[in-house]
Amino acid sequence: MTLVDVPTGGTSDPAAEPDAGEAGGAGDKKGSLLPVIRIIPKEAYDNPTWRGLFYFGRDLLVYTACLVGLALTNNPLVLLPLFVVAGLAVSGLFIVAHDAAHGALFRSNRLNGVVGRIAMLPSWHVYEGWVLGHNRVHHGYTVRQGFDFVWHPYTAEQYRAMNKLQRARHRFEWSWLGAGAYYTREVWWKRMMVGEPPKRYKAGIRRDRFLVLGFIVVAVALSLWLGAVVSGTVVGAVWMALKLVVLPFLIFQFIIGSLVHVHHVAPDIRWWPRREWTKFRGQMEGTTILRAPKGLDFFFHWIMVHIPHHVDMRIPMYHLELAADAIRDAYPDTVIDKPLRFLDFVENSKVCKLYDFEAGRWVSYAEALEGTDAREPVAA
Q: Do 27 and 275 contact (CB within 8 A), yes or no?
């Protein structure tokens, strides 16, 4: 599997694919995003250097403080909230890096690259791999069948073709509890770490993979040393590495898996067959504006206000609400704008299992197996 393969096939390098939706699909007058972009206020693109550095420095400080706290205590009542905040701090740094990867955080490409690579290290993400998979593929073909690999639905036919183990894995990964496992396997491992990139991106991705691997090795080694010094035992050394390096990463994986899921998977979000997809459908109808509870954007940096981010990646994170209000006022019948609620994510994951792309609707496991012997699945 290459870095940009998706479960249903498609091109190995969608960035090189002609865009069937640029001018709209057949009979669709809403294919282009240009009318939407034109109504975004100009001030939504302002990105002074000091502001990007402020968010980067603040999140780095919070992350470092969490590591110090985790290193100094083993009290479960203190560890649990510290782990949660550490995972959120890693998420904040990742969103800063995400903005840098889009070229939205700073006007300087060099500064975007430096800050983006550093900010992605705690989340073990490969900067150039993210630029390829996220910017070029996910943003280029959002909710398009066979192209957008992020939470790409499987069809009933594909599910019937799975063996028992594959079905069990799908059921877990497409539940709310399995969001982190899905993201870790399908996005982080397959595409960040081991996927074979197209030739023209190979050198940059390989370089950044070595950077991430180097960070992991050094961070684990230092944590093991610190744990050995503090506890004098092998168990204490391993526990320190788990506390400082591994567990914050795993908590982040659950957070990002959950957030990406609610961005693009919901009963009222349609995934489109290749020939019916347009940029308008992908970027305006294929995601949402979710208003986070007060205080949560300290870490989430307004990334849940996702429609304007997909309409124009150049908008920095702290101006997404400004752009969202303008877009919502101009397209009130199109924009999904509602509060971010964890229970909505749980309910979405109960409904959104498999997909019928032609009918444009989600299909349950029971529907997929209707008329077949569920006890004897076809071998994959």
A: no
pLDDT score, position 371: 54
pTM, rounded to two decimals: 0.89
Residues 212 and 124 sit within 8 Å (Cβ to Cβ): yes
At 290, the amino acid letter reads L
State the residue for tokens 């050198």.
Answer: 203
CB 368 within 8 A of CB 354: yes
Residue-wise pLDDT tens digits, 197-225: 999 999 999 999 999 999 999 999 999 99
Quote the CA–CA distance of 301 and 308 in Å, as a whole number.
14
CB-facing half-sphere around the CA of 140: CA atoms within 13 A: 19
pLDDT digits (tens, 9 = 90+) for 242-289: 999 999 999 999 999 999 999 999 999 999 999 999 999 999 999 999
Q: What is the pLDDT of residues 144-186, one digit of tens each?
A: 999 999 999 999 999 999 999 999 999 999 999 999 999 999 9
Residue 171: HSE in the Cβ half-sphere, 13 Å Cα cutoff = 12
Percent of the chain with pLDDT over 90: 87
Q: How is residue 274 written in tokens?
A: 């290749």
Which residues are CB-contacts of 192 (< 8 A; sequence separation ≥ 6)? 124, 125, 126, 129, 130, 133, 209, 212
Whether 19 shows a pLDDT value over 60: the answer reads no
129 closest CA partner among 81, 197, 80: 197
> How many Å is the Cα radius of gyration of the chain?
21
The runs of H, that is alpha helices, within 121-273 are: 127-130, 156-160, 164-173, 179-182, 202-231, 234-241, 247-264
Query: Do 44 and 322 contact (CB within 8 A), yes or no?
Result: yes
Enumerate the β-bridge partners of residue 361.
356
CA atoms of 48 and 27, how far apart (whole Å): 42
- DSSP string computed for 28-68: -TT--SHHHHHTS-GGGG---HHHHHHHHHHHHHHHHHHHH
